[in-house]
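User: Please fill in residues for this 206-position structure.
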């Protein structure tokens, strides 16, 4: 069994879901600064996530769904996922973002599964609270081990791809560790570095 695990924000999708949501409240710049600090490893991921989601309190949930349904896919995402699946890979998305974003993309891209967090909403608006599978710096590394055990996938047959500090925890469990337009903190631990904003570049290493 071959396994490919992709980050979502700024990897399979061109941008950060939470930044798009914050733009709706006029808070895009404020939230983007916190996102950058977290992705660069200068801020604890859990703290950054809960701080940013708290700023979204009051945003209508239907607006969240509308925005997430129309998030822009990364250049080459469809072709890359399609080719990996042709070559026998199970292709999965792990996101420190939200299932409102990853699940529509799962169907558009033909992913086998998506793991992400859930934005709590009540009475039709966001409460400012969040929970789920991907809340911590270590979450992706923890989850990839469980997925490998379920699928019978080995480190040798696993590829991971991301751009930020919270993707590092996956790297020990994959032979192909791809930093895609990544922060320096991730590039230091990668063995494949792609700086061209086109996921099809990955296929040169398969």
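Assistant: Residues filled in for all 206 positions:
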């Amino acid at each position: 069994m071959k396994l490919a695990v992709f980050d979502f924000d700024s990897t399979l999708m061109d941008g950060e879901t939470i930044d798009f949501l914050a733009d709706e409240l006029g808070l895009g710049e404020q939230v983007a600064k916190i996102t950058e600090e977290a992705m660069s490893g200068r801020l604890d991921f859990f703290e950054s996530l809960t701080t940013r989601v708290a700023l979204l309190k009051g945003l209508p949930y239907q607006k969240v769904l509308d925005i997430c349904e129309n998030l822009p896919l990364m250049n080459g995402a469809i072709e890359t996922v399609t080719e990996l699946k042709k070559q026998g890979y199970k292709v999965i998305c792990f996101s420190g973002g939200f299932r409102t974003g990853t699940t529509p993309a799962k169907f558009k891209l033909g992913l086998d599964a998506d793991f992400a967090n859930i934005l709590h909403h009540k009475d039709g608006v966001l409460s400012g609270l969040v929970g789920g599978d991907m809340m911590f710096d270590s979450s992706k590394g923890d989850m990839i081990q469980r997925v490998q055990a379920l699928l019978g996938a080995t480190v040798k047959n696993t590829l991971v791809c991301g751009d930020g500090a919270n993707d590092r925890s996956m790297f020990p469990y994959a032979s192909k560790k791809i930093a895609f337009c990544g922060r320096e903190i991730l590039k230091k631990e990668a063995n494949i570095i792609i700086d061209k904003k086109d996921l099809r570049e990955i296929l040169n290493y398969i």
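For context: The chain has a mean pLDDT of 96.
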